[in-house]
Design goal:
It contains nine helices and nine strands. Helix 5 crosses helix 9. The longest helix has 14 residues. The structure holds ligand LQZ7MJT6. The site of the ligand O=P(O)(O)O[C@@H]1C[C@H](O)[C@@H](CO)O1 has 13 residues, from strand 5 and helix 8.
Length: about 290
């Protein structure tokens, strides 16, 4: 298996490598899910609503990278939600862990090869929009691929058309119908006031931003800031999947430089943990509405 990028192929893994990884994962379950969920930092609690979960640790998949961040356990999990088979990815890969961009999003290609058609991507994010508070949620309706704009787009390199087209439109990246369904769930459950729709910007991390950086990124028009998601969205769309993106707002950017408290990963995990039960309830309803 060629897990290097020496030939400048887009993914570093050939089409055949990705199919072989998918076949390996499929050996663990007879379920054939069409819905995939990527759990953001601390959001693995979504896995608690899975009936008959079957975990597939990344270590059993040949040449699959490991997840090194607290709050990301490092496994795929098959299971059922509301009578529908789903595949969870618990343990995303981040650019700041030292993985090249093509490797960060490679699991999305494996999910596609497994049969996933609808990709639900979650993350923990900082609120740049002054209206957002920790514990709020934001449906991502557009994004700013900051690494992409500066030459680190996940699709840089040779393109294998079996994965998707060389040039990819991103104007319709986020599925509106899925967004409306999620909104409906939040309103039905009485939590409509926690929900926003907005623009997510990805930065490389692992540093959180300075006040000056937050101000610039807010001026760009971003509502929430994080260190993931966009490479997965781009590869999901390249693979012709329907994509839904959700940010859990875990902290409010200190645009006035007024706070004496320094933001930590533990703060992010705590808010994610506090929101776990609500997210589980919402996801049970949401998945029942997803085709
Ligand atoms: O994997 P996500 O984007 O949810 O994780 C966020 C960004 C960093 O990885 C981490 C910072 O606490 O949370």
């Amino acid at each position: 298996m060629a897990a290097t990028n020496s030939d400048m192929s887009t993914s570093g893994y050939s089409f055949e490598d990705i199919q072989a990884m998918a076949q390996e994962v499929l050996k663990y379950s007879s379920l054939r899910p069409k819905i995939g969920i990527i759990c953001g930092t601390g959001l693995g609690g979504i896995g608690d609503v899975l009936e008959d979960p079957v975990p597939v640790p990344y270590e059993v998949i040949p040449d699959f990278p490991v997840s090194t961040v607290k709050g990301h356990s490092g496994k795929f999990v098959f299971g059922m939600i509301q009578g529908k088979p789903v595949l969870l990815m618990m343990g995303r890969l981040h650019y700041y862990e030292g993985y090249p961009m093509w490797k960060v999003a490679m699991p999305v290609r494996v999910m596609k090869a497994i049969g996933i058609e609808t990709l639900i991507i979650t993350n923990a994010a900082g609120g740049l929009n002054p209206k957002y508070k920790p514990g709020d949620m934001m449906i991502i309706n557009d994004h700013i691929d900051f690494p992409g704009l500066t030459g680190e787009c996940v699709l840089i390199g040779k393109n294998d058309e079996r994965f998707g087209p060389r040039f990819l439109a991103m104007s319709d990246a986020y599925d509106k119908d899925l967004g409306n369904k999620f909104k409906e769930c939040m309103v039905q459950l009485g939590h409509g006031s926690l929900l926003h729709e907005g623009i997510y910007i990805m930065v490389g991390g692992p540093t959180f931003s300075t006040t000056a950086e937050y101000k610039v990124l807010r001026m760009f028009g971003a509502d929430a800031i994080g260190m993931s998601t966009i490479p997965e969205v781009v590869v999901g769309r390249h693979s012709n999947m329907k994509v839904f993106g959700l940010s859990l707002i875990t902290d409010a950017a200190d645009l006035e430089c007024a706070s004496k408290n320094k933001l930590t990963h533990e703060d992010v995990l705590k808010i994610a943990n506090d929101s776990a039960l609500l997210l589980q309830k919402v996801f049970v309803n949401f998945i029942s509405m997803v085709n």
